DNA sequence: ATCTCCCGCCAGCCT
DNA sequence: AGGCTGGCGGGAGAT
């Protein structure tokens, strides 16, 4: 590998990942790989065990992902250990439902205290459907169960208190913050304060912010939000991108997330490969042989993950579709890109001809070979557009 | 030093 | 009883 003309980022990542890197284990990257794995025509049911095994992570992490994705309508829980894939097409309805419920909550804000039990049941159901829950009113039409969750919740039953703090509900209220206010950017501190209502003591704030980081990372990987800074304070904050997604950074062409369709029945690149080493390695405890294996595997995974991420988000954050781009996007995007892309094709071809990473894992080698074949097939098909 | 957020313990629910 | 679910916060990597 050392003598081959490596892509700079690959050489860089391979060198850096002789040690543990938490970036390769982020929820956002895991979410990207999760989407790459299941956003296909032939996917309907998703088993949590299957997802955990194929992505090489513990079940616990899959729960985090699916709870957030369910809140924005991308999938829906069918039963124990089982989810149904809805896809990106489920997002618009989920967002509309959130908007509707927020405005309803605002309208009824001063009327009366709702019957808690009934609301709870309704909320449970809505959580299971990923959208459209109703609740007591709070700031900005937020569900006050979450807003008040840190207040101790008085004599509420344990189960209810637990649900009030769920990642799913927090996700929905976080999203509502964006879609019901005019704020251009919201920092996680601000969000936590709002969502905590009057109960933002230091400990609750810290916990809530931690969860918001988890949520923000997943939503960022879906391009529903993007990380940015407050214009004046330069403090880290998030901006809502929503259904418009981002504009392509080079052409300015909008690439709405709503145009995502399920992937064709092809094996997706960037799947079955996240985070094979599930633990922070304690290198003091590893044998030399294990250290070598871990380093080799990490380097392979780094590159695969990077490319998988690019398939979804693109190197600069904009969408850059490869051979698996959704059909709906294909025509408009390729048409806009055509002129620019033509100029770059020869560069890509040169790079493709020269770039042959030597994966030590046979499955990854197979995957790369598949990717190259798919790329060639895609190039061939787009030459007729 | 502060921000970020992975990780896995373990309580509580479900089957 | 055993498995599933997911809240929670310690603590370590990143900046």
TrEMBL record:
<keyword id="KW-0804">Transcription</keyword>
<feature type="domain" description="E2F/DP family winged-helix DNA-binding">
    <location>
        <begin position="22"/>
        <end position="87"/>
    </location>
</feature>
<keyword id="KW-0238">DNA-binding</keyword>
<feature type="region of interest" description="Disordered">
    <location>
        <begin position="102"/>
        <end position="159"/>
    </location>
</feature>
<keyword id="KW-0678">Repressor</keyword>
<keyword id="KW-0131">Cell cycle</keyword>
<dbReference type="InterPro" id="IPR036388">
    <property type="entry name" value="WH-like_DNA-bd_sf"/>
</dbReference>
<dbReference type="GO" id="GO:0000981">
    <property type="term" value="F:DNA-binding transcription factor activity, RNA polymerase II-specific"/>
</dbReference>
<dbReference type="InterPro" id="IPR003316">
    <property type="entry name" value="E2F_WHTH_DNA-bd_dom"/>
</dbReference>
<comment type="similarity">
    <text>Belongs to the E2F/DP family.</text>
</comment>
<dbReference type="InterPro" id="IPR015633">
    <property type="entry name" value="E2F"/>
</dbReference>
<dbReference type="InterPro" id="IPR036390">
    <property type="entry name" value="WH_DNA-bd_sf"/>
</dbReference>
<keyword id="KW-0805">Transcription regulation</keyword>
<dbReference type="GO" id="GO:0000978">
    <property type="term" value="F:RNA polymerase II cis-regulatory region sequence-specific DNA binding"/>
</dbReference>
<keyword id="KW-0539">Nucleus</keyword>
<feature type="compositionally biased region" description="Polar residues">
    <location>
        <begin position="141"/>
        <end position="151"/>
    </location>
</feature>
<dbReference type="Pfam" id="PF02319">
    <property type="entry name" value="WHD_E2F_TDP"/>
</dbReference>
<feature type="domain" description="E2F/DP family winged-helix DNA-binding">
    <location>
        <begin position="162"/>
        <end position="242"/>
    </location>
</feature>
<dbReference type="GO" id="GO:0090575">
    <property type="term" value="C:RNA polymerase II transcription regulator complex"/>
</dbReference>
<protein>
    <submittedName>
        <fullName>E2F-DP transcription factor</fullName>
    </submittedName>
</protein>
């Amino acid at each position: 590998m050392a003598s081959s003309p490596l892509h700079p980022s690959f050489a860089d990542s391979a060198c850096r990942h002789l040690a543990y890197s938490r970036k390769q284990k982020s929820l956002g990257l895991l979410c990207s790989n999760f989407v790459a794995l299941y956003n296909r025509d032939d996917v309907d049911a998703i088993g949590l065990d299957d997802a955990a095994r194929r992505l090489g992570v513990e079940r616990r992490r899959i729960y985090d992902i699916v709870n957030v994705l369910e809140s924005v309508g991308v999938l829906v829980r069918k039963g124990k250990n089982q989810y149904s894939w809805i896809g990106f097409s489920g997002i618009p309805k989920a967002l509309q439902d959130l908007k509707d419920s927020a405005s309803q909550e605002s309208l009824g804000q001063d009327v009366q205290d709702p019957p808690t039990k009934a609301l709870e049941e309704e909320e449970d159901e809505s959580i299971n459907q990923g959208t459209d829950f109703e609740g007591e009113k709070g700031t900005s039409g937020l569900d006050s169960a979450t807003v008040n969750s840190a207040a101790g919740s008085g004599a509420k039953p344990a189960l209810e208190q637990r649900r009030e703090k769920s990642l799913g509900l927090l996700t929905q209220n976080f999203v509502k913050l964006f879609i019901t206010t005019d704020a251009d950017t919201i920092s996680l501190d601000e969000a936590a304060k709002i969502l905590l209502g009057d109960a933002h003591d230091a400990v609750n704030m810290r916990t809530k912010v931690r969860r918001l980081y988890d949520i923000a990372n997943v939503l960022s990987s879906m391009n529903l939000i993007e990380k940015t800074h407050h214009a004046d304070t330069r403090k880290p904050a998030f901006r809502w991108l929503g259904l418009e997604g981002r504009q392509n950074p080079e052409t300015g062409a909008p690439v709405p997330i709503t145009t995502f369709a399920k992937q064709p029945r092809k094996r997706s690149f960037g799947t079955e490969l996240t985070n094979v080493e599930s633990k922070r390695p304690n290198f003091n405890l590893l044998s030399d042989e294990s250290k070598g294996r871990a380093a080799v595997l990490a380097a392979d995974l780094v590159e695969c993950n990077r490319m998988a991420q690019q398939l979804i988000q693109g190197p600069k954050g904009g969408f850059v579709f490869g051979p698996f781009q959704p059909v709906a996007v294909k025509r408009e995007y390729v048409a806009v890109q055509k002129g620019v892309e033509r100029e770059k094709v020869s560069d890509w071809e040169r790079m493709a001809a020269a770039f042959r990473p030597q994966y030590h894992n046979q499955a990854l080698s197979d995957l790369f070979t598949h990717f190259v074949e798919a790329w060639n097939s895609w190039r061939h098909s787009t030459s007729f557009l």
